[in-house]
UniProtKB/TrEMBL annotation:
Organism: Pomatorhinus ruficollis (streak-breasted scimitar babbler)
Gene3D superfamilies documented for this protein: Nucleic acid-binding proteins
InterPro entries found in the cross-reference section: NA-bd_OB-fold, RADX
Pfam families the UniProt entry points to: RADX (PF17659)
Gene encoding the protein: Radx_1
Record GO terms (molecular function): single-stranded DNA binding
Transmembrane feature ranges: none
Domain of life the protein comes from: Eukaryota
Name the UniProt record assigns to this protein: RADX protein
Amino acid sequence: SKLTNLGHLEMTWRSRVHFHPLLVRILHKSRLRYYGKPEKKMDMPYQAYFEVADGSGMMSMVLWNSLCPEWYHSMNVGTVLLLAKYTIKTSYPFKTHPTPGDSQMKRFATIEISLNVRDPPTEISIIPEEMVKPEWGLPEVKYRFITRSELDDLPHNYSCDVIGLVTFVGRAERARKREHSEDFWLYRWAHAIDGTSDQPFILELFATSQPDVFERIHPMTYLVCTQMRVIQCLTENPSRTVYLTTSNESQIFITGWHKGQPYTKDAKVKNFIQWTKSQSEADQIKKTVIGGYYPFPRPPDTFVKY
């Protein structure tokens, strides 16, 4: 069928009601959001954002309501989609934006693609990777992997991806989303090493929409975290500690989930795998810890310094 592209959509969307089908690749995926309220009777008040791209650039795509439980777990970073009968809306101004791996990619930020179960019912098809043709001009997924030796020099809030061998994972903890709120964030602390520094990555991992992965982070697993944000504790403490925290678009992968993921082609991931082959598993296991209370950032030694 006749296809359109994202750049053409941005130029013509106001003058059209019906749009030609789109062929796009998913570059980023947000966590699933539940927006139900007791007073509003909605069957499935779910929403998820994706950043999708073709040869012309990148745009947000929103999956609504009952399409979320049906499609969310099938739509992964790297998946190619054929979309028909979608709608175009003005972008929601307050949503978060991931940092693209390709800094040259054009971003269409004024509009977003909306996928609904009716008015009109969107038609979604997943194209298997082996059927994707080079002439379609779809961009590859690109990452911003860093090593532990590079971390200390990065600015606060910098967005990056990391891979490491887990040496510590803490128990799951809860933090209130807002003061006096009944809603909680679930998170856990983890340490991962990559052989480039004596120090581990300190990772604050909030539960994303991947409960099966979040619950199974164990020492000695290969952990990949994407779209992490650098937090520089800018305190007067000279031994300031840098750590990484998840963002709305973070994805977490552990041993058993890596096969077929686009990051397996990344040079820094390959270097890490080479380093792990040179390590003695027995020696590393002796250094691993699981569970327990992990106060972080660490309080000062004396009350005076507080």
